[in-house]
Amino acid sequence: MCGIIGAASSRNVGKLLVQGLHKMEYRGYDSAGIALHQKDNIFNLRTLGKVSLLEDEMIEQRPKSKLGIAHTRWATHGKPSKKNAHPHASGEVNIVHNGIIENYLELKEKLIQAGYTFESETDSEVIAHLLHQHLQSKGDLLAAMHEAIKELDGAFAIAAIHIKDKNRLVVARNKSPLLIGVGLEENFAASDPLALSQLTNEFVFLEDGDIAEITKESYQVFDRKNSPISREVTEIDIAVNAVTKGEYSHFMEKEIYEQPNAVANTIDGKLGDNDVLDNIFGLGSSEVFSKIKRIQFVACGTSLHAGKVGRFWFEQIAQIPCYVDFASEYRYRDPLVEEGTLFVTISQSGETADTLAALRYAQEKDYLSTLSICNVPTSSLARESEHVLFTNAGPEIGVASTKAFTTQLAGLMLLAMSIAKSLNKDQQNRKKLVHELRNLPKVIEETLKLSNEIMNIVPNIADKHNALFLGRGMFFPIVQEGALKLKEISYIHAEAYPAGELKHGPLALVDDQIPVVALSPENTLTEKLVSNLEEVKARGGTLYVFGGENAKIKIERGEYIQMPECSELLAPIIYTIPLQILAYQVACQRGTDLDQPRNLAKSVTVE
Ligand code: F6R
Questions:
Q1: Domain count, the chain
Q2: Segment 344-348 mean pLDDT
Q3: For residue 300, which atom of ligand 1 is closest to its CA?
Q4: Among 441, 466, 484, which residue terminates a domain?
């Protein structure tokens, strides 16, 4: 993963680069570094830990430069350390890299034989030496980059500077996001427009195989064949307040509380008086939907959980069978594609490597069409899918996904309704759902008020090592999401089970030391769930149950928290909220770095 940034300007760029890195820490934050072109040397500074540590060093050293590159890392090859941090240098070249070079061992061997010595354990260092090697014969950084990338297998976004080029930055892209930011008397490159949000609103998105040279006055893109090519300039305005915490202690907290608005933005303009509007997934989408016989969902992590909830909705509302797969597994099992199957990817970032690779794999198969539900309009996934629904949640900075999940669910409900409409199914239910969806932001707001009640149970969970999460039906993926939230930010081991599975093994874990969190909404499965919870009670377990107005279970050890009244079909969205708050508050109590939990990154752009 990692975030890269580069700048060529008529002003000092050190501060701009570090500010850009801060905004890309969601891509990784185990080490950071910067290389700045100076009169007759390249200033290279690398630090272990977050970008703020690099910033402290920069403030102390105050290097001046008008051309530079910088990097924030999430380790793939080689542990987080100063020497594995980027930029990597080879003679007079410095590079930063995001991605994975799959043939690096083979290249490393050849370069060692050619006399190069390696200082790091990374795959990226081969790029620096390869560039240096080609510079000897080509004498020019751009020409050397053309040659070097021919030898690289894998994913890369690279930015390089050379001592002999005081004005020029060279970048290259293959399967890792990279764009040029077009400024006035200055130009930039970065992994994400967010990194440049205070510098420009004009971006050029590079495509796989592109190389570009960037100076402060201009930029030029070259395609795979080394021919100059013009790529469209896209204007994007990123609200500055969307990338600050404001009055909140953490981005995650802010993003939890943004959910009423975020969900309202997802459904905005998509609903008529009594039905979902036509073609909300793009021109011609309603026509495509009328031919659907199956749905294949593919996603990772939290987004996968959204797909698992979606499956219930599609089978119930649109009455078509659905399959849900881990993106990282899907393309390795030679899936059989049935006629009329719509391929749907779900992703906050739209850059998750496994999800993107699955989409590209699906494009080679006989799917009816491809569709993505995505939060980032400029992402690769959004650009490469035939149909898209943007969730419009605004930038999600906290590593643990919150508003992206609930807006994905709202988007999936819109998709289920749209397909049902195209297939002439379930009109009465759709009419009801239109009204329930409109009311959803209000119910989320009500649910957020449970925060104080949830706070009461936090001390009983924060000091434990394990937790069990139970749900049934479409609430099983919701408890999976709740368990994921708890483990990723509080580091408490949490496992989710469909409650009926307890007696097949996990019941053995139940004692007075393991909190059991359960979702008990009022639906056809309530009685069954209650019987499963009685099994926990009978073994002395402590239950924390979120449920409807009429509690069907009497809790002696633990707590019952009553949820606001809500639509049965949309209840998974509502029941997500207390689990997010619980995980957040437990993590606060344990004092973890919850916006940037250990070992993780927000956008997983490596396989
Ligand atoms: C967990 C989380 C991850 C992501 C996963 C997919 O809180 O955020 O599990 O959901 O890495 O990312 P996207 O949705 O960007 O494809």
A1: 3
A2: 97
A3: 6
A4: 441
pTM listed for this prediction: 0.79
Domain at 279, CATH number: 3.40.50.10490
Q: What is the mean pLDDT of residues 206-210?
A: 93
The pLDDT value given to residue 202 = 96
**Contact 469/497 with Cβ under 8 angstroms?**
yes
* Segment 454-492, tens digit of pLDDT: 999 999 999 999 999 999 999 999 999 999 999 999 999
Q: What does the alpha-carbon distance between residue 401 and residue 385 come to, in Å, rounded to a whole number?
A: 22
Same domain, yes or no: 81 and 145: yes
Q: Which amino acid is at 527?
A: E
Q: How confident is the model at residue 240 (pLDDT cuts 50, 70, 90)?
A: low
The secondary element (H helix, E strand) that includes residue 408 is: helix 403-422
599 C-alpha vs ligand 1 centroid, how far in Å? 14
- Spacing, Cα 332 to ligand 1 middle (Å): 20
Q: Are residues 352 and 257 part of one domain?
A: yes
Across 13-17, 193-197, 514-518, least confident range:
193-197
Which SS3 state, helix, strand or coil, does residue 223 take? coil
Read off the pLDDT of each residue in 375-403 and give the average, rounded to a whole number.
91
Ligand 1 shell residues, CB under 6 Å: 300-303, 347-349, 352, 355, 400-401, 484, 488, 603-604
Helices 104-113, 125-138: inter-axial angle, 10-degree rounding: 50
Q: Which of 2, 322, 374, 588 is the catalytic position?
A: 2
pLDDT of residue 450: 97
- Residue 349 alpha carbon, nearest atom of ligand 1: 15
Mutate which of 27, 192, 298, 303 for ligand 1 pocket (most atoms within 8 A of beta carbon): 303
Question: Which residue's CA is the closest to the ligand 1 atom numbered 5?
Answer: 301
Q: Looking at ligand 1, which residue's alpha carbon is closest to its atom 3?
A: 301
Write the residue with the smallest CA distance to atom 11 of ligand 1: 301
Last residue of a domain, one of 411, 441, 471: 441
> Which of 395, 426, 398 minimizes the C-alpha distance to 413?
426
Whether the per-residue pLDDT at 415 is higher than 70: the answer is yes
Rounded mean pLDDT, 174-190? 94
Q: 542-547 and 515-520: which strand pairing?
A: parallel
User: Is the domain of 550 the same as that of 480?
Assistant: yes
Q: Is 2 noted as a catalytic residue in this protein?
A: yes
Residue nearest to atom 16 of ligand 1 (CA): 347
Chain-centre distance of CA 102, in angstroms? 23
Choice from 349, 600, 602 to test ligand 1 binding pocket (greatest atom count within 8 A of CB): 349
Rounded Cα distance, 181 and 201, in Å? 8
Domain co-membership, 54 together with 180: yes
Mean of pLDDT values over 356-374: 96
With pLDDT > 90 as the criterion, what percentage of the chain qualifies? Answer: 78
**Does residue 83 have an active-site annotation?**
no
At 109, the pLDDT band (50, 70, 90 cuts) reads very high
Residue to probe by mutation, ligand 1, list 74, 250, 298, 300, most atoms within 8 Å of CB: 300
Residue 347 Cα to ligand 1 midpoint, Å, equals: 7
Same domain, 8 and 129: yes
Which H/E stretch holds residue 359?
helix 353-363
Q: Are 102 and 607 in contact (CB under 8 A)?
A: no
Residue among 3, 6, 2 nearest 219 (CA): 6
Same domain, 421 and 528: no
pLDDT of residue 242: 66
Q: Which of 175, 485, 487, 602 is catalytic?
A: 602
Q: Across all residues in the chain, what is the average pLDDT?
A: 93
User: 567 lies in which domain range?
Assistant: 449-607
Same domain, 134 and 175: yes
CATH no. for residue 84?
3.60.20.10
